[in-house]
Write a structure and sequence with these properties.
heterodimer; A: alpha+beta; Phosphorylase Kinase, domain 1; 3 domains; 12 helices; 44% helix; B: mainly alpha; Rna Polymerase Sigma Factor, Chain: A; Arc Repressor Mutant, subunit A; 7 helices; 60% helix
């Protein structure tokens, strides 16, 4: 390490000013940077510090971009958009959409100020004449299309079907979720969360809470120590219980869902896992349970800890 | 992709779907990376990215300038992140109470800076510092842009960013890479 002698007050001020220099934005030959950089020429120590600062800044900037993108993320986003904007959704009055969608609606229509402002912020010229970028022209095109009599007749013809679809949609909303569930996605979702807690030191959004209630003692022989509410694509009010901490990690997720995967009623079905994590899943009382642990003995002992309802 | 659910099947819906699918294809990695650096969690970043594109879909009519797509999406992502932060229970800040002015900001060995180590350091900073750092390093926004986006004075941005950068350097240089420990972030 370059343990330096303290800079003088004047040089300290100079350093503070130099720190404000933005290589990607500021031109070194422009005022006031020109004067500052000229002072570097006559001060080897300060120049060395400056070069190290610049180098580190570049490394930090590069490190910021080193993010592993989850596999098939784009597909999942589009799938979620589709499921959230199916034509039946707005037609079903009085049925609440999933939390995440409600959040967006809140953002757009109620909380207003912050979210709407943020959404509009990067558009310094929000009102621009209709151009070839798509939106306005396509809106006009749609309006023309809707004026067509043939389309009205077609809509009337499918009206009956729409009613039936609305009823089906109502049933779907009452029995969420619309997000497709696969073993891979389930495993990925819970493993990502566990990784964020264990590897990155994060906590669930609401933090861990001491476990005090009786539930799920009826389900497990061992009493959890902490629990938290978490959001997964299929249940935004899922719960996770940790029944042991220390070098061995054990988490139990409780996700309200139909038994779409055909999971067994006892904890015997392993999920695809990677690295040190082992996972088991089962279905009971309207919920999917997923156990995640880095100690396979815990999975082996699941049937021993499980107390069927 | 297959024909999207197009609402009434109109040209509007189809154009809107085509546009949002293109936005997702071109910007999902950028949006996710931005949110991962801000939230520090893969699961939260993905959830927030989903919310970002949902909001983008709803408001896509606001986007009139194609060259501002990235900035527009990142601003929505930022908004979602801030809302997420507000919803979270306050966390004990163990090391942000230090007077950063007293910290030595000498530059030391920076060879080991990578994405993971950076995130460990970022996770220890308060959200408002993390935000200006991410806007500066990831979004590559200028001080003025940061000030305009966050609605705070330029001087505040400069001082906050300077303190955040100093603290980040301190964390990156002084703290060895820690193996995953059960006590960190665990109950």
């Amino acid at each position: 390490m370059n343990e330096e002698q303290p800079f003088s007050h004047e040089k300290e001020q100079l350093r503070r000013m130099l720190e404000l220099f933005q290589p990607a934005v500021d031109r070194p030959d422009s005022e006031p940077w020109l004067a500052l950089h000229q002072q570097l020429e006559g001060d080897p120590k300060l120049r060395q510090w400056w070069h190290q600062m610049q180098r580190m800044d570049e490394k930090i900037r590069d490190a910021f971009r080193e993010v592993a993108i989850p596999e098939a993320l784009a597909e999942r986003i589009v799938d979620r958009l589709r499921s959230s904007h199916s034509p039946q959704v707005p037609a079903v009055a009085g049925v609440q959409p999933p939390n995440a969608i409600r959040d967006v609606a809140d953002c757009e229509s109620q909380e207003g100020a912050v979210c709407e402002q943020a959404a509009a912020e990067p558009l310094p010229q929000p009102v621009s004449p209709p151009g070839p970028d798509g939106v306005i022209m396509t809106e006009a095109g749609a309006a023309r299309a809707m004026r067509g009599g043939w389309r009205r007749r077609a809509l009337l013809a499918v009206g009956g079907l729409a009613v039936a679809a609305g009823v089906a949609a109502l049933a779907l909303w009452l029995l969420p979720p619309a997000v497709p569930l696969t073993e891979q996605q389930l495993a990925y979702s819970v493993r990502s969360m566990v990784d964020s807690w264990v590897e990155h030191g994060q906590q669930p959004s609401g933090g861990w809470r001491p476990y005090e209630a009786a539930e799920p003692v009826a389900l497990l022989r061992w009493r959890p120590q902490y629990w938290a509410q978490v959001s997964v694509p299929w249940d935004h009010q899922a719960r996770v219980y940790t029944v042991r901490s220390g070098q061995t990690h054990f988490y139990l997720f409780q996700i309200r869902h139909s038994n779409q995967l055909g999971l067994p009623p006892v904890p015997s079905q392993p999920l695809p896992s990677s690295g040190a994590w082992k996972m088991g899943a089962w279905y009971a009382s309207g919920c999917i349970y997923v156990a995640v642990t880095n100690d396979p003995r815990w999975l082996d002992g699941l049937s021993g800890m499980y107390r069927p309802a | 992709m297959a024909d999207p659910v197009g609402g009434d099947g109109s040209e509007l819906s189809q154009a809107k779907w085509s546009r949002i699918e293109r936005l997702v294809a071109e910007h999902h990695a950028d949006v996710y990376g931005y949110l991962f650096r801000l939230s520090g969690s893969a699961a939260d970043a993905e959830d927030l990215a989903q919310q970002t594109f949902l909001a983008a879909f709803e408001n896509i009519g606001q986007l009139r300038e194609p060259d501002k797509e990235r900035a527009w999406l990142l601003s929505i992502a930022r908004s979602r992140f801030l809302k997420w932060v507000r919803k979270r229970a306050p966390r004990v800040a163990t090391d942000v109470e230090l007077d950063v002015e007293l910290l030595d900001d000498g530059v030391t060995d920076d060879a080991g800076i990578d994405g993971e180590r950076l995130q460990q350091a970022l996770n220890r900073l308060p959200p408002d510092w993390r935000l200006v750092l991410t806007m500066y390093y990831y979004e590559q926004a200028t001080y003025r842009e940061i000030a305009e986006q966050l609605g705070i004075p330029l001087g505040t941005v400069m001082s906050r960013l300077a303190r955040a950068k100093r603290r980040l350097r301190e964390l990156l240089l002084r703290q060895p890479v820690r193996p995953a420990q059960s006590s960190h972030g665990q109950p």
